[in-house]
Write a structure and sequence with these properties.
The complex is a heterodimer of chains A (183) and B (479). Chain A is of the alpha+beta class and 183 residues long. Chain A is 13% helix and 21% strand. The radius of gyration of chain A is 15 Å and the shape is globular. The two termini of chain A are 21 Å apart. In chain A, 48% of the residues are buried. Helices cover 51% and strands 8% of the residues of chain B. Chain B contains 23 helices and 8 strands. Chain B is of the alpha+beta class and 479 residues long. In chain B, strand 6 and strand 7 form a beta hairpin. The chains are: A alpha+beta (183), B alpha+beta (479). At the A-B interface, strand 9 of A face strand 2, helix 4 and strand 4 of B.
Chain lengths: 183, 479
């Protein structure tokens, strides 16, 4: 079952916008790959196809207390709330950008506007770590990040949000143990 | 990396930045960056972290980092999850501080120390910086570079030094650790604002500590003469400010309140050495202090590296001894040479003779007057000048018959050497940062090597207080 409608309240409060292309590095970042089978629509938690979801096994990855950062590439998905659906795709999966063979960008998941994007990891089929790490569609504030996290929760996921880093006034890209709160 | 490599440099440094190189663009950029414990981003209100200029980020994190930061908007700083906790914990342990001691040193609750040393927490970067500075670590890169460029020998030696005498408590070690940070920071900033000056390269260390043919004090006199020559001083002129001499030599001179058994010290942090002058006890007299600083200069400029320990503390009894017999008996020729060097540097014997043309060596009152005249002329303490004049006149008068001499320095000398110690425009700036350090910080801020926020942090002031007094601070020092 598609989870898109669980984000309607969020969409109402935070309108869609064009991507911020200030930081565009290559033209193929704008290639719309959203029709590729590797780009999935987010399902509600209970109806996830467990054969297609890659789990992050974050605890096995680092015994140093390093729970999760944007540098943790294994099992790292990009998420993008579009006006009509919510797309997810592995950033470093089989699907790559054409020219440089580089990882996906959020702009590869849409041909136009979107509400916001970020990164997520599946701890299991129903529990996810979420952050607002996106150069093109990042949540515009801590409040927006909270609102989109509420959408994931409405879709049945137990969510651990990286949260907001008030020191740098940006979405957190580094999750330490004290921030691991499952809601 | 050149400007051509990355077409986005214009965007990174903002439209007002100009210049043909990345460095020039960074220097003229008004873009500010901000870091928390765990990540860095371009500064936007209301970010509460530590602010950096584009020039600082380029200098300390590099062009690749800046480029990546631009594309990613926010970069994770710690190289491993355990940073900066691991560096802070290991450093505290290396110094031998308990968490409670460190909490008292940095005036923060112990709970904050515990959190800072745990990889489980994200902490206020201002607290992390404060703790890093107290431990002699590089506050710029704490968390980003494991070990934060801390000199491992510093902690080991200070711990050993502490254990060598019961009277040496954690607070004295902590003062030296913080001074080590001041030394390294001043040197680094001085290199930024005045990169071409390297007078130290003109000194070649000497392992000549005298022999029966040429006693140590004659060797010292030659070294003092060479020092004057290198500094462009005549053979006889008084050295009006040792503070300025140290600055010209790029040797940070730090005034500090230490136990009164310590007159001065040379302290190394990495490959940078500085001089620490105690302003408490007898060393509160600036003439005594000048002898201390000149003594330490003798060590620092001329002793070979193997003779220079990471920390050398000298007591006043060592420094004020000008009686050659004492050293002849002790055979401590390194200290003997530094002592003789100090006196000869400040008051060359020939110059003392020239300044004392008609001394009646049979008149104790006249001798006392001559000693005081020379003290005022050359800026040397009563004890040192008494022996020095005696030696200059080939010991032809009875040193024990000399009348009591007023040891108090004149206001002019106090002003030149210690004018910012007692009164500084920013009331909460610690004594150890009131010397040229303050001037270098203000100049570096003017040249965008620091944000005003960082300058204020280093001078323990609010940004508003710093901004109000910045021009005054710049006027206090010839930096």
């Amino acid at each position: 079952m598609n989870a898109s409608d669980r984000f309607d309240k969020y969409r109402a409060d935070f309108p869609a916008r064009a991507p911020d292309l200030t930081r565009k590095d290559a033209d193929d970042e704008l290639e719309d790959l959203s029709s590729s089978p590797e780009v999935m629509s987010l399902s509600v938690a209970s109806s996830n196809d467990t054969t297609t979801i890659q789990h992050c096994n974050v605890l096995e990855e680092d015994s140093d207390g390093f729970w999760l950062t944007t540098k943790t590439l294994k099992g790292k998905y990009l998420w993008l709330v579009r006006p009509d659906d919510v797309k997810i795709a592995l950033e470093h999966g089989q699907l790559r950008r054409s020219e440089k063979n580089g990882p996906l960008k959020h702009t590869n998941l849409t041909a136009g506007e979107a509400h916001s994007g970020g990164e997520l990891w599946f701890e299991n089929d129903t529990a996810i770590y979420v952050n607002g790490g996106s150069g093109r569609f990042k949540p515009r504030s801590g409040d927006e990040l909270q609102a989109v996290v509420a959408g994931f929760q409405s879709a049945g996921y137990t969510v651990c949000s990286f949260g907001w880093d008030y020191g740098s006034n940006k979405e957190k890209r580094f999750l330490r143990r004290e921030n691991i709160i499952w809601i | 990396m050149t400007l051509q490599d990355v077409p986005k440099w214009f965007d990174i440094f903002g439209p007002e930045a100009h210049g043909a190189t990345i460095e020039e663009r960074a220097a003229s950029s008004s873009v500010r960056f901000v870091r928390s414990q765990d990540q860095m981003a371009e500064w936007t209100p209301p970010a509460t972290g530590r602010q950096y200029t584009a020039r600082e980020v380029l200098a300390y994190f590099g062009a690749d980092f800046l480029k990546q930061l631009f594309f990613d908007e926010a970069l994770v700083l710690p190289s491993t999850a355990s940073e900066p906790a691991k560096t802070l914990r290991e450093r505290r342990e290396a110094f031998g501080f308990t968490r409670n001691e460190l909490a008292k040193i940095v005036k923060l609750p112990e709970d904050i120390i515990i959190r800072a040393e745990s990889p489980d927490y994200s902490n206020d970067i201002h607290h992390i910086n404060k703790i890093a500075i107290a431990l002699g670590l590089d506050d710029y890169v704490i968390g980003y570079v494991p070990g934060a460029n801390g000199d491992p020998n510093l902690a080991v030696r200070l711990k050993e030094w502490r254990q060598a005498a019961k009277a040496r408590g954690s607070s004295t070690v902590a003062r030296f650790a913080e001074i080590a940070w001041v030394i390294a920071k001043q040197h680094k900033l001085q290199q930024h604002i005045n990169p071409s000056v390297d007078l130290l390269a003109d000194f070649t260390q000497s392992d000549d500590y005298g022999d029966p043919g040429k006693p140590v004090w004659e060797v010292a006199a030659d070294l003092a003469a060479k020092t004057r020559e290198t500094l462009g001083l005549s053979w006889s002129e008084p050295i009006m400010s040792l503070r300025d001499v140290c600055y010209r030599l790029s040797i940070p001179l730090i005034h500090a309140e230490l136990n009164t058994d310590i007159a001065g010290a040379t302290l190394a942090n990495g490959n940078v050495r500085g001089i620490v002058a105690n302003v408490d006890g007898n060393n509160g007299n600036v003439w005594v202090q000048r002898a201390t600083v000149a003594h330490e200069l003798g060590h620092l400029l001329w002793d070979p590296a193997e003779k220079l320990n990471l920390l050398i503390t000298d007591s006043l009894t060592q420094i004020e001894v000008v009686d050659r017999k004492v050293f002849q008996m002790s055979h401590d020729w390194v200290e003997a040479r530094a002592n003789a060097f100090a006196v000869e540097l400040l008051a060359p014997k020939e110059a003392v003779r020239e300044n004392t043309p008609h001394l009646d060596i049979k008149d104790p009152a006249a001798i006392a007057t001559a000693i005081r005249d020379n003290m005022e002329h050359f800026g040397l303490s009563a004890t040192a000048m008494r022996y020095h004049l005696w030696n200059a006149f080939d010991r032809r008068f009875d040193i024990n018959s000399v009348f009591k001499i007023d040891p108090e320095p004149t206001d002019e000398w106090k002003g030149r050497e210690a004018y910012t110690d007692d009164f500084f425009v920013l009331k909460d700036t610690p004594l150890n940062r009131r010397g040229h350090f303050a001037g270098v910080v203000a100049k570096a801020e003017e040249q965008k090597w620091l944000t005003a926020e960082s300058a204020a942090f280093y001078l323990n002031a609010t940004t508003k207080e710093y901004a109000e007094h910045r021009v005054e601070i710049l006027g206090l020092y010839a930096v």
